[in-house]
Design brief:
heterodimer, A: mainly alpha, Rna Polymerase Sigma Factor, Chain: A, Arc Repressor Mutant, subunit A, 2 domains, 9 helices, B: alpha+beta, Jelly Rolls, Phage tail protein beta-alpha-beta fold, 3 domains, 7-stranded antiparallel beta sheet, 8 helices, 19 strands, about 30% strand
Chain lengths: ~190, ~325
C-alpha cells in the first residue's frame, strides 16, 4: 500500500472511522502475522499477538495522529511485543536456551524482516489475483513442491498446460512484484555493501 | 553484483521458482559464478523465494476468525473497564456510607473543642470564622458545625464571622446569646473590673438575654448593666479594640477612662490612690508601645509613680498639668 493510502487510513482512524479500522485489519493482519513468525513465534501465538496489536490500535486510534505512520506504528508494536515475548520466554527457559534466544534477539534486523514479509505478502497477494486453475497449479508447484509432471497427473491435465499456467503466474507475479523486488534488491545491496 | 539487471527478471523468477530449462539454469549459474556478490544476491532472493512456508502460512490465516478474535478482545476489554468502573463505584459507595455512618455516630456526641488563649491568639473555626482571642479568653466550639454555628465564649475577643446566611453563628456568653450571620465585632464578657460589652464593627448582630433582645448596627455597642439590663449606645470608646490592634488613642480623655483602656489593652488593673487625678485629661496616641514605656510617659507628664501590687498596679500621686 502506498504511503498516501496509509496516511488517509491513519486520518480516518484517528477520526474514529469504524470502517477504516476494518480496512486496516484486512490490509495488515496477514502480513503482520507473517512478520511476527519471523521472530520464531508459531502461527497461533503470532495471530494472538497481532490481534492484541489491533486491540491496542483500536483503543489508541485517537492518539494515532501523533505517530509517524500507521504502518510504522503497526510493525513497531508487533516487533516490540515479539521481543518482549522472546525475553519473557528466555527467563523461563534453561540457560543454553537463553544464550540462543539472546543471540537470535541480537541478530534480528526488523527492517529486513519487515521488507521480507512485505514482499512475501505481495507475492502471495499476486497469486491470489491469478485465475483459479493457474492459482491451484502454482500453489501445488510452490507451496507443495510438486513437480510439473506430478501436478499434471493429479489434475488430469497435460504437462504442457501446467507449464503454461506456471509461466502465466510468473508473468503476473513479475509485473506485480517487480517494484517490490527492486526495493528488496536495493535493501540487499546496501546490506551486502555494508 | 553491480548490475543485477544483467540477467532478466523473468529468468531470475523462473530460476527461483525452479521452472528453468537446463540452458537457462546454466546461464543463471554462469552469472552467479561471475562474482561472489552475484551468488550472494541470488542466495538471498532464493531464501526469500524458497520460503514456501510463508505462502502457506499466509494462506492458512483465517481473516474472519481473527477479526472475530479482535472483536472478542475489544468486548472483553470494555467489559473489564466496566468491571473496574463498578468496582471503583462500589468502593466509593462503601467509603461514603462508612463515612456517613461514622459521622452519624459521631453526631450524637460531637467533639467539643475548648481553647483557652495563653497569649493573644488567632484561631480559625471550622466554618472559616476568625477569632482573635485575648490572653485568658476561652472558646468552646464543636469540631464540626451542624445546622447552626454555636460556640460558648468567655473573655474578650474580636470575631470576624464568616458569612453564611443558612447557618447563623451563635455565641453564648454570660447567659446572653449573640446571633450573627456574617459580621465582625468585639465581644467582652464581664470581669470583676468591667461589665459585659459588645461593640459591632460591621454587619448586623442580634443580641439577646433571656428577657431582652437588641439589634445592633455598626458603631453601636451593647453592655450589660449592673442591673442586668441591656444598654445600647453609640460606641464612644476609640480603644475598644486596642488589645488587638496595639494602638491607643486619647482625646481629652479622663484619667480613670485612660487607665481603664490601658488596663483593658494590656490585661492589667490600675488602682488610683489620688481620686483627684481621675479627672485630669490626656491627649495622646500610643502605637505598638509596651506597657512600661506608656507608664513612663505618664510618670513624666503627671508627676506620678506606679507600683506593682499582687493583682493591680497602684497609681500614686499625679497632678493635672
Amino acid at each position: 500500500m502506498s504511503s498516501d493510502q496509509d496516511t488517509a487510513l491513519q486520518q480516518r482512524l484517528s477520526r474514529g472511522d469504524e470502517t477504516a479500522f476494518q480496512e486496516t485489519f484486512e490490509l495488515y493482519f496477514k502480513v503482520l502475522v507473517l512478520f511476527a513468525t519471523k521472530f520464531s513465534l508459531d502461527k497461533e501465538t503470532a495471530e494472538d499477538l497481532v490481534q492484541d496489536v489491533f486491540v491496542k490500535l483500536y483503543e489508541q486510534k485517537e492518539r494515532l495522529q501523533f505517530h509517524s505512520s500507521l504502518k510504522a506504528f503497526l510493525y513497531q508494536s508487533v516487533r516490540n511485543r515479539c521481543i518482549d515475548m522472546i525475553r519473557s520466554s528466555k527467563t523461563r527457559e534453561k540457560h543454553h536456551m537463553e544464550i540462543k534466544a539472546g543471540a537470535e534477539l541480537e541478530g534480528l534486523n526488523s527492517e529486513d524482516l519487515m521488507l521480507q514479509s512485505e514482499l512475501e505478502e505481495k507475492i502471495y497477494h499476486s497469486i491470489g489475483q491469478l485465475p483459479e486453475q493457474c492459482q491451484i497449479i502454482f500453489k501445488m508447484n510452490r507451496f507443495e513442491g510438486k513437480k510439473n509432471q506430478e501436478i499434471a497427473e493429479e489434475l488430469n491435465i497435460s504437462k504442457r498446460t501446467v507449464e503454461t499456467q506456471i509461466s502465466k503466474a510468473l508473468k503476473r507475479l513479475r509485473e506485480d512484484i517487480y517494484p517490490y523486488l527492486k526495493t528488496l534488491i536495493l535493501a540487499i545491496s546496501i546490506w551486502i555493501g555494508g | 553484483m553491480k548490475n543485477p539487471n544483467d540477467i532478466s527478471n523473468e529468468l531470475m523468477l523462473k530460476y527461483l521458482s525452479d521452472t528453468v530449462t537446463t540452458e537457462e539454469r546454466e546461464a543463471m549459474e554462469a552469472w552467479m559464478a561471475e562474482s561472489e556478490e552475484n551468488s550472494k544476491y541470488i542466495q538471498q532472493l532464493k531464501s526469500l523465494w524458497a520460503n514456501a512456508e510463508s505462502f502457506s502460512l499466509l494462506d492458512s490465516i483465517d481473516l474472519e476468525e481473527n477479526w472475530k478474535g479482535v472483536q472478542g478482545k475489544l468486548n472483553k476489554h470494555e467489559a473489564a473497564n466496566n468491571r473496574i468502573f463498578w468496582r471503583v463505584a462500589a468502593a466509593v459507595i462503601f467509603i461514603v456510607s462508612a463515612a456517613f455512618l461514622v459521622k452519624s455516630l459521631m453526631y450524637t456526641a460531637p467533639q467539643q473543642m475548648i481553647f483557652t488563649a495563653q497569649q493573644q491568639t488567632d484561631i480559625t473555626l471550622p466554618d472559616g470564622t476568625l477569632v482573635t482571642m485575648k490572653e485568658g479568653a476561652t472558646l468552646k466550639y464543636p469540631e464540626e458545625f451542624g445546622n447552626e454555628r454555636r460556640v460558648e465564649f468567655e473573655g474578650e475577643a474580636f470575631f470576624e464571622v464568616e458569612r453564611d446566611t443558612e447557618r447563623p453563628f451563635i455565641i453564648e456568653a454570660d447567659d446572653t446569646e449573640t446571633l450573627v450571620l456574617g459580621t465582625s465585632f468585639n465581644l467582652k464578657t464581664a470581669t470583676s473590673y468591667s461589665g459585659f460589652e459588645l461593640v459591632l464593627v460591621e454587619g448586623k448582630v442580634s443580641f439577646s438575654t433571656a428577657d431582652e433582645k437588641v439589634v445592633l448596627t455598626p458603631g453601636q455597642r451593647v453592655a450589660l448593666g449592673p442591673n442586668g439590663l441591656l444598654e445600647k449606645t453609640e460606641n464612644s470608646n476609640l480603644n475598644f479594640q486596642a488589645w488587638q490592634t496595639g494602638s491607643l488613642v486619647f482625646e481629652n480623655a479622663k484619667m480613670d477612662d485612660v487607665f481603664e483602656d490601658i488596663g483593658n489593652a494590656y490585661n492589667v488593673h490600675f488602682e488610683l490612690e489620688n481620686p483627684a487625678f481621675a479627672s485630669c485629661t490626656l491627649t495622646a496616641r500610643y502605637d505598638q508601645e509596651d506597657l512600661d514605656s506608656i507608664l513612663n510617659t505618664l510618670e513624666i507628664l503627671f508627676n506620678t509613680s506606679f507600683t506593682e501590687k499582687q493583682d493591680a498596679i497602684l497609681v500614686s500621686g499625679g497632678s493635672c498639668n
